[in-house]
């Protein structure tokens, strides 16, 4: 755990750069206003009365063709269609999805905003311009990483990798929607405080100040961070479950995910096991 904490705090060892900077993105998002959601709400009011939620695609025309391919790949599954429609018809959450070149192979979520009733009303997913390339490490991304050999063997297209990354980001948004705003804000505030002490005390996680901070925010920074990543991966697995259901290699791919989760993400195994269990009668994989 300590070496993971060092890696997370120092920002090394991860392939999905945007995911790594999630806590920073999130911190920045606290300063952003609600302008997009409000603008959309007022537009929506013109036609449908007061309804602020929905799914808005803000994609530059030069990325539109590839975005549509990734999206259609995601929508080719039942779970993809269900989740997309849930956000498109959402009563109060305005989810914006955009494509930007800053972190080509990665993606990130942020711009979270809650209303007075404690409901998440605004979120933004930023997809890199080449999310159909690049397999993040197996330690934190056991689902996305498992796809690598299938693309090189041409059994799955690169669009499947892109759609898996979309599912991962939607998993983040779902989780944040279930996180109380005060806890989220507390984490954003205390994580930098924790990191500063950690870097100056010889990486001593038993420092009483750090123990107290971790208690307050529900875990140390790496626990908070990896919990979020594994929720993203759980949703990625849900998409993949539907996507490869009829493929001859579906057991091989899920057994690989199982082995990786057991090796690196044992405390989080249950959320993956739940999905594996829901695979249905057609499955005979060892993950039961
Ligand atoms: Zn992530």
Describe the structure.
The chain has one domain. Helix content is 58%, strand content 10%. The chain has 14 helices and four strands. It has helices spanning 2-10, 17-20, 22-29, 35-48, 61-75, 78-88, 142-146, 148-152, 158-177, 181-200, 208-217, 221-243, 250-264, 269-277; strands at 54-58, 94-100, 107-114, 120-128. Strands 1-2-4-3 form a four-stranded mixed β-sheet, with helices on both faces. β3 and β4 (120-128) form a beta hairpin. α9 packs across α12. The longest helix has 23 residues, at 221-243. The chain is globular. The site of zinc ion has 5 residues, from α9 and α12.
Percent helix, as a range, is: 55-70%
Which descriptor suits the 3D outline? globular
For the secondary structure, the number of strands is 4
Strand content: 5-15%
Major beta sheet, strand line-up: 1-2-4-3
Mean pLDDT: 85
End-to-end Cα distance, whole Å, is: 28 Å
Bound ligands = zinc ion
Radius of gyration: 19 Å
The major sheet is characterized as: 4 strands, mixed
Global structural class:
alpha/beta
Summarize the structure.
This protein has 288 residues and is α/β, with parallel strands linked by helices.
Task: Outline the fold blueprint.
Elements: H1 2-10, H2 17-20, H3 22-29, H4 35-48, E1 54-58, H5 61-75, H6 78-88, E2 94-100, E3 107-114, E4 120-128, H7 142-146, H8 148-152, H9 158-177, H10 181-200, H11 208-217, H12 221-243, H13 250-264, H14 269-277
Parallel strand pairs: 1-2, 2-4
Antiparallel strand pairs: 3-4
The structure holds zinc ion.
